[in-house]
Amino acid sequence: MPTLLIRNARCVATFDTHQTELRDASVFVRDKLIEAVGPAAELPQTADDVVDARNHLVIPGLVNTHHHMVQSLTRAVPQVQNAELFSWLRGLYPIWAGLTPEMVFVSHQIAMAELLLSGCSTSSDHLYIYPNGVRLDDSIAAARATGLRFVATRGSMSVGQSLGGLPPDRVVEREDFILKDTQRLIECYHDASFGSMLNVAVAPCSPFSVSQDLMRESAALARTFKVRLHTHLAENDHDLAYTREKFNCTPTEYAQDLGWLGDDVWHAHCVKLDDAGISLFAATRTGVAHCPCSNMRLASGIAPIRKMLDAGVPVALGVDGSASNDGAQMVNEARQALLLARVGRALQAPEKHADGRSFFGCDLGPAEMTARDALILATRGGAQVLGRSDIGHLAPGMCADLALFDLNTLAFAGGAVHDPVGALLLCASPQAAYTIVNGRVVVRQGQLTTVELGPLIERHNALAVQLVASAKA
Ligand code: ZN
Q1: What are 307-320's pLDDT values in tens digits?
Q2: 195/209 Cα distance (integer angstroms)
């Protein structure tokens, strides 16, 4: 079995339960698993493949829990650059109606390449629009081509405008077909084994695009096959108002009524989760994919992440791209989670800054979230929310998913010398020097080893132009 040695790293931050951080340390990988992590002097000195990590920070591969990779084709579309969620969706649905299978395959490779180059080793994706013969299989093929560990979610929309939903009727599907196709995908692709490179989850899109029947039947299907459930919830005030008006309840009550709370469920956004909702999420171990860039881009608001964490809600990060971010850089997503949490604290509790203590010499309390907290969301948190015990931290027996960052770069000058882990988020977000997925070096010296980016970007751009032009025609 092939061996891989990450040798003499300046710092290995394991994100294990003790948050162990080691200086001058190595990681020894055999085949697909980590065999040893520890002081360089105590580990093997050679292997089939050796990465000299003297100037590098080593962390677990980052985990992205919410994305719409197909939207890479519609980034920065001028007509929705300044829209909030509902008008953004109304502007984009007619464009997405022109998607083809090739567009899905190419755009997913683009999004996966972007993630891998930012140190992400596992990602989920939520594909919920299936026009013109598009299938989730095209997305799964892209994961195999790029080498990303993947959680493919079979999204869906079934309530069009004529039934009071938001999407145009021509982009929704029949519910019986949705359920049949979802079962096909689970039976064909879902691998529940330790170290699995591919999970399938069930993911009706949102309260304003699917029926309650489909939500209930999707939950039943997922539980029959023991796969996870994913959807959007409580994203902004309009979403909240829709749920109140149409179903006369809060988003959490909506989820509870439909069987959508539990440790096998994760909801994207939850910006507007109230205190009762947070308690219920915590009690049921329901997961949250926090998407700070998207929440800022669409002016949705600031999710109460500190409250969720304090209550015990499992929280992870999602880039939620690619047209509401409009990027898929996981280190930057963690950085934005850190920064947004501090803005939220300043806005929501200014009195905490002036609670009788002197302004001079006191801690003004930005530790609403630390760099290490944000990285926990991006690693262990992601693993937990996706129901994976085999990824998310570095320890013997875990999958060999790692990200390495070169600390001898301009961005880290004067930062990494003090604290390489803190610098990763506080300094400008770097690209990964190496990304290792399942023991395979997928990014080496900053370059993807699995797909050739130049021709891929060229084809992607041609398809993006074609897609937007077809909607105007
Ligand atoms: Zn989303």
Answers
A1: 999 999 999 999 99
A2: 34
Which neighbouring-strand residues pair with 38?
26
What gap in Å lies between CA 131 and CA 173, rounded to an integer?
9
- CA proximity to 52, closest of 6, 13, 12: 6
Interatomic CA distance for residues 237 and 235, integer angstroms = 7
Looking up tokens 């931050």, which residue turns up? 13
Q: What's the CA-to-centroid distance between 96 and ligand 1, angstroms?
A: 14
User: What is the per-residue pLDDT across 429-453, written as a single tens digit (0 to 9) for each?
Assistant: 999 999 999 999 999 999 999 999 9
Q: Which residues surround ligand 1, an ion (CB under 5 A)?
A: 320
At CA 84, angle to CA 80 and CA 89, rounded to 5? 60
How far is residue 166's CA from residue 170's CA, in Å, rounded to a whole number?
12
Q: 119, 121, 132: which is closest to 70 by C-alpha?
A: 132
Asked whether residue 365 carries a pLDDT value surpassing 80, the answer given is no
Q: What confidence category does residue 349 fall into, taking pLDDT thresholds of 50, 70 and 90?
A: low
How close is the Cα of 124 to the center of ligand 1, in Å? 11
